[in-house]
Amino acid sequence: MTLAEKQRALIDDLSVVDDRYERLSLVVDRSRRSAYTLPASEKTDATRVTGCISPVWLTGELHDDGLSLRFDAESPMVRALVSLLVELYDGATPAEIVTTEPILFDELGLSRDLSPTRRNGLTAVRARIKLLAEKHLAP
Q1: Helix boundaries (H) for the chain
Q2: What is the pLDDT along the chain (139 residues), one digit of tens a residue?
Q3: Catalytic residue of the set 3, 52, 86, 133
Q4: Which of 3, 46, 107, 118 could be stapled to 96 by a disulfide with Cβ–Cβ 3.0 to 4.6 Å?
Q5: Whole-angstrom Cα distance, residue 128 to residue 125?
Q6: Where do the structural domains in the chain lie, given as residue ranges?
Q7: What angle, rounded to 10 degrees, do the helices at 76-89 and 3-15 form?
Q8: What is the pTM assigned to this prediction?
């Protein structure tokens, strides 16, 4: 499945809930079951995402041509939003990650309810994911 197809599938899965507040609640519930957790030993200054008011830590390693991502966040809401990004990009090739922008927040109507600081934080997380992918692009 391409990254674009994966993004469309995520949007379709979450769009079954009509009310955007209930949809956001569903995203928070999904993040509680996230398999992308980061152990405390990896929550360092080097893995912390700058630009996020609420602490977020993110790492990525290349496995079988796909970037394997793990993260943690202190705020349940931030954790839920970052979890969507990580779920989207996890396992994708570095080239796909670099060239595919996340449209799911807009498509799902979640962007309009986010504060400017949360939007900036998500932008910072996206930038970190992209940076991790760029490190593994073939020259």
Answers
A1: 3-15, 20-32, 76-89, 94-99, 104-107, 116-134
A2: 899 999 999 999 999 999 888 988 999 998 888 777 888 999 999 999 998 889 999 999 999 889 999 999 999 999 999 999 999 999 999 999 999 999 999 999 888 888 899 999 999 999 999 999 999 886 6
A3: 52
A4: 3
A5: 5
A6: 3-134
A7: 140
A8: 0.92
**DSSP, res 79:** H
Give, for 68, the enclosing helix (H) or strand (E): strand 66-73
Over the range 3-29, which residues count as b (16 or more CB within 10 Å of their CB) and which as e? beebbeebbeebeeeeeeeebbebbee
pLDDT value at position 89? 97
> What's the one-letter identity of residue 88?
L
Catalytic site residue 10? no
